[in-house]
Automatic annotation (TrEMBL):
Organism: Aquamicrobium aerolatum DSM 21857
Positions in coiled-coil regions: none
Record family assignment: Belongs to the CBP3 family. Belongs to the UPF0174 family.
Chain ranges of the Ubiquinol-cytochrome c chaperone domain: 36-174
Position of the signal peptide: none
The protein's name in its UniProt record: Cytochrome b pre-mRNA-processing protein 3
Amino acid sequence: MFKSIFSFGRRSNRVVTDALYNEIVASARQPAFYAQMGVQDIPLGRYEMLSTHMFLFLERTRGGSQALIQLAQDVTDEFFKDVDHSLRELGIGDQGVPKRMKKLARMFYGRAEAYREAVAAGDDKALAAALARNICPQEPSWSHADEMAAYVNRALAYLAIQDDTALLAGTISFPDAAQMEAGQ
């Protein structure tokens, strides 16, 4: 009860978390990734794009205020709840879900660290290689890896100029992948 009294004028954390997560999911599902950039439109391909967009969001919130850090944790928790739900929808039973969740969590954090290192070093080739290795491992030389790396860099710059207050209110936007593909 006290929480609702003292948060007068602010959106509830659940509403903010849902709004941010829904935008992250919508951005990860942009048709250009699948139709033009060759990401497979299968559960694993969608997981990779969602993971990439979660990485972008987490990079934006990294080093922010305590409220922003808590919000990032809430959105991350929502991400993993969604992954758990998706596994169950795919027919994986209660006993198999925890094992797969551990594997997917390791995959996510491993990818995020590889992307973070490449971005921090300003190494576009390393970023493209990491993205290719994770997003399209079936293609030894994914022809869209450089485009995806350019999208990640553009998205990081795009997110960097978005105000913390807007994020805390549940508003975030990502670049249009179709414009990236068209070279704009």
